[in-house]
Amino acid sequence: MYTETSQPTVLLVDDKPSNLVALEALLDDGSRNIIAVTSGKEALRVLIKQPVALVLLDVQMPELDGIEVARLMRLNRRTRDIPVLMITAYGDDINQMLRGLQAGAIDYLCKPITSKILEAKVNNLLGSRQRQMDREVAHNEANKAKAFLVEILNTTGEGIAVLDSGLHLIYTNPAAAEILSVHLPAEPNGSLPFWCETGGLYDFPQTGTSARTLTHEVWYESDSNPAFPLQLSCSPLSTNQGWVLAFQDISRIKQLQATLKRIAITDALTGLLNRAGFFQAVAAALSKAQRWNKPLALMYLDLDHFKDVNDTHGHPVGDKLLTAFCKRLTTSMREYDVIGRIGGDEFAVLLEEDVSEEQVSTIAEKILKAQTKPYLIDGHSLVAGVSIGIAYYPDDGANTDQLLQAADVAMYQAKQDGRMSFRHHSPEMNARVRARNLLMESLYQAMEQNQFELLYQPQVGVADNCIHGVEALLRWHHPDAGMVSPTVFIPLLEESGLIVKVSSWILKAACKQRMLWNQSVSENLTIAVNLSAKQFSDELLIHQVEQLLDETGLPAHCLELEVTESTIIQNIATSQNVLKRLRSIGVKMAMDDFGTGYSSLAYLKQLPLDVLKIDRLFVANLQQDERDRAIARAIIGLAHELGLTVIAEGVESKEQYELLANMGCELIQGFYFSKPISSLEIQNIGLKRIIPQHP
Ligand SMILES: Nc1nc2c(ncn2[C@@H]2O[C@H](COP(=O)(O)OP(=O)(O)OP(=O)(O)O)[C@@H](O)[C@H]2O)c(=O)[nH]1
């Protein structure tokens, strides 16, 4: 195929070399390449091999004459467009000229050749050939560009469509046809039903000079398509003849967004609203309540002793209990109440209807009642006790945080008052909580600032009025509040987790103190130390006690560890094991507060103990209550049969002392002999008989 070169090539064909020389002489002015050949065959060979802009072809030639060459050139794609100028000596032979023109010649030159005519015709033909070739090049370029664009339009996943000025569809690429389910040209001129999210039909932007591309989210709906969302860019055509639309189906993206949104506000374990979701729901309800001046109620629920479930049965059982609790809670509520899980074992319920105190109390009672039935989880029968705090809008708080805080305060009160109950928020509760929080804050510094002190309460022998043991008791000197009652700060220590650190300090300090008394007290004097529930369940306890005895040099039989009845009873099998191991190193084990809760004599014989401490509450009623006396007598008798020593706590009067002494109780602890006293006072009493304070 001919390609453009800097100079056009002219092919001269004549069987007479003299003619060729003459023609070459006339045409070779330096502006063109000249190739001269003497036969039709040679001419065709040149034409096939290289680009030629014009052929000057002698008609009369042996073998292949000029007309045949011209005819053959027309048959070949590569040569058919090359202009041919026939040269003939028979300018008057019309038939021959006609044959030449029919064979494809453009024009004739008659011999003898006039140089000016030759020059003019050659220039004309070369000029028109050049223009033709330029057009071909431009056409080819345009075709290539078009093919390129068509390929892009056909392969892109984005829908591209063109609308005319009457909003009729006049072009779609394959993606657009698929997305919109339209098939041009079968459905030409249909307008596209794009809808705005607000519900109205999409308004196409104005065409004109200030027109620009706009991008929107729209919905598309047709007879064959339920509505689905599109991201649409709309550009007015520069000719003002319509619009080009580029769009994508964003259903999947929207679904993902919706899923993410749902996940963001849903609690994965229970499927309830999570904290964020619940807060959103409360905020929406609050703005409605403000507008209509309506009250709201908010319940804050916290499971009772849920940690124990995890600790005893493992996290998976805890999870199942939480899920089961939610199901039961949901069935206790009305469909339109909003329930959320706002923390580990914390839930909240928003009530928008029927929120008088009476109605909300009924609902709270219903929730509590539903929880009295045990759950059967992995073969364990578990009860999910729950404490509920209730706060009201607008009385207890104006926003979500205030309401939740007020409900939380009320819930805390319900816990304080014994759990498995509900409380309505009241302003006094805030003051109590503030005071408690202040105390809690200072408790964190108490250890570092040496504000804790140990006092020792003597355990006096009935037989000799001498001190046989002392119980180490913790006291807290608050720098501003003075002496804080243990009944106030011990629960705070437990709640804060500080109990672990403080308990091991007590144990160590008491053992050291016992060694310091060595010179002045009986060599068998026991130092009794209370073990917290956390310490008792700590795997490392035995190791720690051994290490402590080693460090301080205290003989093991001088250390008595007191564990409350309620701690021991939590898991009898484990307790048996721990008690056994502690006793095996020689330490004495005492059950504290006996008679307070469970008072089951049956399990006593299963527990490897040394000492039984009868609780003060029990002792308090001895004089008045014949039944208590009978029970005390039975307990002491049984304890002796089991080889246990009995200590009565809280003995305050001579009458109580005498009753207990008569029943065979060996040791007495209480104000009757002494309140808890300092280490120095114990040292001063030493081996002396102790005189009752209330003779
Ligand atoms: N199984 C399980 N436990 C959780 C999850 N989230 C938090 N917890 C546990 O729930 C317990 C919550 O304990 P608290 O509320 O502090 O204490 P409690 O034992 O319920 O005691 P009170 O609330 O005072 O009655 C902690 O031990 C957490 O580790 C959870 O998704 N699954």
TrEMBL record:
InterPro entries: Biofilm_reg_signaling, CheY-like_superfamily, EAL_dom, EAL_sf, GGDEF_dom, Nucleotide_cyclase, PAS-like_dom_sf, Rev_trsase/Diguanyl_cyclase. Residues 436-690 form the EAL domain. SUPFAM superfamilies: CheY-like, EAL domain-like, Nucleotide cyclase, PYP-like sensor domain (PAS domain). Keywords: Phosphoprotein. The keyword Phosphoprotein applies. The keyword Phosphoprotein applies. Residues 9-126 form the Response regulatory domain. It comes from the Bacteria. Pfam families: EAL (PF00563), GGDEF (PF00990), Response_reg (PF00072). Residues 294-427 form the GGDEF domain. Coiled coil: none annotated. The modification 4-aspartylphosphate is found at D58. NCBIfam families: GGDEF (TIGR00254). This is EAL domain-containing protein. The lineage of its organism: Bacteria, Pseudomonadati, Pseudomonadota, Betaproteobacteria, Neisseriales.
